[in-house]
Amino acid sequence: MNPYSLLAQTTRERVGDGAIAPILADCGAASQILMLIWPQLGDFDSLEYAWWIRRQAAQLQAAGIAVRAVGIGDRPSGQKFCEYTDFPADHLFIDPNASLHQALGLYRGLSLKLPVLSPAQNSWLNLMLMCAGIGSPGTLAEVFRGYRGDRTAPQLIADDEEIQAFPLPPLKGSFFRWAGGRGFQRPFELATLRLRNMGEVLRHWKTYVPDAAYLTQRGATFLFDAQGELLYEHRDRAILGFAKTMSNPLQFLQL
Fold first, then answer.
1. Angstrom distance (rounded) from CA 159 to CA 249
2. Which of 95, 101, 212, 221 has a Cα-to-Cα distance from 183 of 20 to 30 A?
3. What are the residue boundaries of the structural domains of the chain, listed by start?
């Protein structure tokens, strides 16, 4: 079933002003609608996906593509997320208990339950297992790609850009040329960006993750034309599996 009909009827709290509003509001003039259903806003996938959206924001705007996102959290976590990622707060909506994810039938992640643990503790256990690749196919390979580099992926950090990823000292993008060159994803380049994201979330954990019960919930990507016809979809099955082509997650848009 085309998920557009469900999404078009869905309202959630908008991060920008706190109003309960349709998540597809103000998309009438768009040539296409890119709908991002994100897991926890403190999740690796949400932060990394937002980075790619910011990276290609000009191309998205030029193509007339409206981007809307729904993530698990509350308004303070959404505000912190937008502050860190520069994702537009008026285009981000909050789903505190992943009810939209469940209505869309998205993968909840590993769901082992030990009776001696609380729901949040079970979520932590399942998250750790998924990070090890259990119930999360492809996660370990994607982690290793971040360290190994990828000649099929673009360069991620400009030579004159400085990046701070605690506990590493500030690094210039030109530093990574010593690991392999320029013009492609160099060894350790993506891993450094992920380390920066991890440091950000750990410093503000309670803000990003107000309820740990949904740590394993995965998300999805939907692309619709102006009439609501589904052009593309990807339903996440793993941590660090938010795109069919992780070397270039927005490749399907052909920007």
1. 22
2. 221
3. 4-253
Q: Over its length of 255 residues, how does the chain's per-residue pLDDT go in tens digits?
A: 789 999 999 999 999 999 999 999 999 899 999 999 999 999 999 999 999 999 999 999 999 999 999 999 999 999 999 999 999 999 999 999 999 999 999 999 999 999 999 888 999 999 999 999 999 999 999 999 999 999 999 999 999 999 988 888 888 889 998 877 899 999 999 999 999 999 999 999 999 999 999 999 999 999 999 999 999 999 999 999 999 999 999 999 988
Q: Which CATH number applies to 4-253: 2.60.120.430, 3.40.30.10, 3.40.50.300, 3.30.470.10?
A: 3.40.30.10
Take residue 199 and report the two structure tokens written for it. 């440091």
> Over the Cα atoms of the chain, what is R_g?
18
Total-model pTM: 0.96
**Taking a C-beta distance cutoff of 8 angstroms, is the pair 172, 161 a contact?**
yes
Q: Which residues contact 124 (CB under 8 A, 6 or more apart)?
A: 212, 215
